[in-house]
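Appendix B. Chain record.
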Amino acid sequence: MPDPTPLKTNDGRFSYEAKGARDLPPLAFLHGIGGGARVWRGQLDAFSDRYRAIAWDMPGYGGSAPLQSVSIPALAGALKDFLLEVGAVKPILVGHSIGGMIVQQLLAHDPMIAEYVVLAQTSPAFGRSDGDWQKEFLEARLGPLDRGETMASLAPRVVADLIGDHADPAGIELACACMASVPEASYRAAMMSMLGFDLRKSLGQICVPTLVIAGAKDKNAPAPMVKKMASFIRNATYVELEGVGHLVALEQPREFNAVLDDFLRMASPATGSDA
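Structure tokens predicted for this chain:
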């Protein structure tokens, strides 16, 4: 089966993939720094019978126009514009990694914009650029590019470092292909946008039902930190997946889909069913 042709918003700013009838409840997926809309194809297939399942290309990714200045607030503003363009009113937002940061930022300014949210393997804070962990993280991701590597040569090594046990081979192949295709400038800008991000004091303001997902072997968003984040969200369901690294939807797609489906059935019994 050929890959679906990416869609474009009416204003041409965003590319995205979507599946499901337009009159179904909107379910929007937001990828991480090394991803793109196509990392969510398994979820679009699994949930499009009950939802209008939508996956965007973050600004600067896929066919989406880059922002002049990239920051988490600017990306949250772009997300709000995107949702308006595709007619996603009161969507369910599923944000992975930086996608989850963008969701948190959006909720901080518009707490009722979403029906429910899923924060998958993400953090409420990244910290300052002079922190030891931050320096190590940025060196691992950007240092090789500074020394002449390409996104294509970097991708397999980074993906291998992100995954946990028994990862789905097709999912890992897709993860590598997506990361290899990310423009270096967009990747660098997204990395730097996280510096100074800190919404820990805003977690208590999240008032919609929230699913928080952690991977037990995730080194980027360690499970103890994610669990602590969930404890500050008043209506949160926390799920920790054994053996999973940082790319749960690609590493263990059936398990991820089952956890998401369980949450959606509990939050909205009228539309939920087995994925």
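Further analysis of this model is presented in Appendix C.
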